[in-house]
Amino acid sequence: xxxxxxxxxxxxxxxxxxxxxxxxxxxxxxxxxxxxxxxxxxxxxxxxxxxxxxxxxxxxxxxxxxxxxxxxxxxxxxxxxxxxxxxxxxxxxxxxxxxxxxxxxxxxxxxxxxxxxxxxxxxxxxxxxxxxxxxxxxxxxxxxxxxxxxxxxxxxxxxxxxxxxxxxxxxxxxxxxxxxxxxxxxxxxxxxxxxxxxxxxxxxxxxxxxxxxxxxxxxxxxxxxxxxxxxxxxxxxxxxxxxxxxxxxxxxxxxxxxxxxxxxxxxxxxxxxxxxxxxxxxxxxxxxxxxxxxxxxxxxxxxxxxxxxxxxxxxxxxxxxxxxxxxxxxxxxxxxxxxxxxxxxxxxxxxxxxxxxxxxxxxxxxxxxxxxxxxxxxxxxxxxxxxxxxxxxxxxxxxxxxxxxxxxxxxxxxxxxxxxxxxxxxxxxxxxxxxxxxxxxxxxxxxxxxxxxxxxxxxxxxxxxxxxxxxxxxxxxxxxxxxxx
Length: 485
Description:
By secondary structure, the chain is an alpha+beta fold. It folds into three domains: 5-69 and 322-402, Ubiquitin-like (UB roll), CATH 3.10.20; 76-302, Uridine Diphospho-n-acetylenolpyruvylglucosamine Reductase, domain 3 (2-Layer Sandwich), CATH 3.30.465.10; 407-484, DNA polymerase, domain 1. The protein contains 17 helices and 19 strands. The chain has helices spanning 27-36, 47-54, 91-96, 98-103, 105-113, 117-120, 125-131, 137-144, 246-252, 259-272, 283-302, 353-360, 393-396, 415-422, 432-442, 452-458, 469-484; strands spanning 17-22, 41-43, 61-66, 76-78, 82-86, 148-155, 158-165, 170-172, 175-176, 183-190, 196-203, 214-222, 228-236, 243-244, 333-338, 341-346, 378-381, 384-387, 400-402. The strands form five sheets. Strands 4-5-10-6-7 form a five-stranded antiparallel beta sheet. Helix 5 (105-113) runs antiparallel to helix 8, helix 9 (246-252) runs antiparallel to helix 10 and helix 10 (259-272) runs antiparallel to helix 11. The longest helix is centred in the middle third of the chain and has 20 residues, at 283-302. The termini are far apart.
């Protein structure tokens, strides 16, 4: 008996492959392209879209609308009255700008919890908003900060814009008020007042690469005597959408943050939500987590400790490359500078950079999870460590890529490779190319040897099933010490 693709488990289905790609350079051009072909799928970082396509359907192909070349989309503007986050601004861009953490700490805290350094180098803040999952971390931070999204559309051949408060942007589970042919061009956050303070917290099942069980953004304004004059609390992963929790906020306004008002706010938050149950947590566990998250966050704000755990240095595994510097190509022919050699070929398989590299360059870059969870496929793209399984190959055309094959030779090992050998960090070896590529990027970031905690954060996107982390960290320290000596 034959088995059709639709009868297969989703991991066995072929999914939807990425075929062609259009590369607009202005918002107007992008809107015209979308009007001419409504089937185009807009893509910026691609970390959500690539995975969605891989898990959808029983085959077929789709054309993409690449937004990374659009003028102004990679702009992060911290003007006096607003903070403007362009649609191409990545989570790493947020973390690379200290003024963001200084002025709107909740967003910076949420960005640090998104995935891993490799994902943060690709994933965009606006993309996280538009995907509209109630588990998407930056949504609660930006709703608490009273952000708006600016939406562009085509009217009479020109660009028209409308603004929507982020808390009104979602009209259901993974659903927004975006109309056909519209694009979100930026998010705008009002600058906080002098006594306004906030933070963002998350409950997850592990320290990194964890989808939230509960996440929450807090933004409070105080009088000189400590009385709360304004409170915005947004809770996520406890319903079909991330939403402002008015009952909890009402318990705070007009009072200082005492243990009694904090307890009342936590009680109100629990009573006002109907948590979902899924593979990460039961509804009962989520209710308990809401109480814990709200109580601890407000207690931290009461003590003025919202910045206590913010890292002094954040490993980005990035040189802050401008994605728009790549020369856009509209054809299916892909040309890349890989390990200083020019390679060309057609898009293959799913259309990811990982498939293209393995087909046209070599097998050094490994495929394991194929969904950005393990780090085995880490490569350097224009100087940034990325998960190649989540990068559309056509979007990378014209870029410079470094893979594990480009780090030294068999006769003359790269220092990072040699350190992994010397410290017995290799074990089965399958995950090691990804670890070495991430560690090599880390070796360029700081002018002193990173701490073990910084190395753990830098390698949080890489998994070793042999549990060889101690030796791996020792190898990274050894290599970087040698390079800085």
